[in-house]
Amino acid sequence: MSPKSIQYEIKTERLFLRPKRMEDVSRVFEILNENPEMTRFMSFDPPEKIEDTQKFFLEKEKEFPEKSVVWSIFFQDKLVGIISLEDICRTQNAWKIDRAELGYWLDPLFHGQGIMTEAGQAVLAFGFEKLGLHKITVGHLPQNSASQRVIEKLGFRFVGELRDHFFRFGQWWNDKQYEMIVDEFQKQDS
């Protein structure tokens, strides 16, 4: 099935996920701008201007759906976060790869309600069943225990810690890495 012919909207018991749209820019900007501490564990700084968020949306639009799928997460009809499959790689020279990396963030007002775990389960199912991925990876900083709990609840397998993986805020940071292959997902699902 061609990536463009797939239906990317996802409904769960409590959530609605759909590919992000330009109409989501103001709400995403609002969440990140009002909660700048959220980005301390992310690869980007809080947006200073709404144009920063617009630029991100436009860049991701160019990658959709072959390289990246970014969903807006709606809970009780309100956009509360973002979840994505990034760096989708199908092949590398003669190798078949079929891999992506899971990324996510949630408005702090909605933490502790199982929203991200529910969204994560839905995106894992989508990645393996609809996109035909073989492996999904995810990482977090050791200091981000909330993200670690989500990753563990989703059933990812810890594969190791990358030392001094990136430089930010005047220091080198480690990155804990996890993965799940389609067989492991199917065993969880049965």
Structure summary:
With 190 residues, the protein is of the alpha+beta class. It has helices at residues 25-34, 50-63, 115-130, 145-153, 182-189; strands spanning 10-11, 15-19, 69-75, 78-92, 95-106, 135-140, 157-168, 171-181.
Based on the coordinates given, report the CATH architecture. Answer: 3-Layer(aba) Sandwich
Output the CATH homologous superfamily: Gcn5-related N-acetyltransferase (GNAT)
Assembly status: single chain
Strand content range: 35-45%
Query: What's the arrangement of strands in the largest beta sheet?
Result: 1-2-3-4-5-6-8-7
| Helix percent band | 25-40%
Q: On the 0-100 scale, what is the average pLDDT?
A: 95
Count every beta strand, where a strand is a DSSP E run of 2 or more residues. 8
H/E element sequence = EEHHEEEHEHEEH
Helices and strands in order, then pairings?
Blueprint: E1 10-11, E2 15-19, H1 25-34, H2 50-63, E3 69-75, E4 78-92, E5 95-106, H3 115-130, E6 135-140, H4 145-153, E7 157-168, E8 171-181, H5 182-189
Parallel strand pairs: 5-6
Antiparallel strand pairs: 1-2, 2-3, 3-4, 4-5, 6-8, 7-8
